[in-house]
Known about the structure:
Elements: H1 2-11, E1 15-25, H2 31-47, E2 52-59, E3 64-72, E4 87-90, H3 96-100, H4 109-115, H5 121-127, E5 131-136, H6 141-148, E6 154-158, H7 166-174, H8 179-185, E7 192-196, H9 198-203, E8 209-215, E9 220-223, E10 229-231
Amino acid sequence: AVTVNVSDLAAMGAEPLGFLLAIALPKHLEIDSFKEIIEGVLKACDHYSIPLIGGDTNEASEIIITGTALGMTDKPMMKDTYQKGDLIAVTGNIGLAALGFELETLDNVYVKHALKPEAKIKEGVILKDYATSATDITDGLASELYEIKRDGFGFMIYEEMLKVSDEYKQLASELNLDYLDLILHVGEDFELLFTISRENLEKLPIDCIVIGEVTDSDVVELTLENGYVERIKHKGY
């Protein structure tokens, strides 16, 4: 709950100010379970240096947790302020959480990404001075690309630039899963997806992975490693 909302601040280049927690609990919930939830919230808040400043509690038939993060920035990043020729990039590898959700073992880097995602708040604060637009990847790369697309503009993503490891492909294959489907349509990575001019990319003081470019095709496309170009389906979590 904390990470999801702090990630929204990161996508706008905002500094965290405070976190509000609304929680509904079954009346028979053990007090130790309640303490574990609150301790988890406080630990996450401490990680992002964002204080828990209030909220609300209610009774419900199941556990419901809703968070609101407050932040401030003097230069908010918007989702669709890119231009043709801008590069499309992400702050880290994507699809790791999607694969992690499918694995049974807990001692795995992919499962860690699934169960303990991390908002890129420091990267967001830096990107606001370089990126032309940004959002965070919660519902899958494809869903986010369609979310930020505006009329007259398109996106070309290149499979070879996604840097999908052989291990990733092998694990997906063993689970009878399409690795590109995992990367494009599941999400929960909480990496930042952003556009940036070629000039500013050279000045960017943080690492990123360039995965494509902004075009005027008015469609969202993927160039496969074999050179074939296909439309990316508009679907996500």
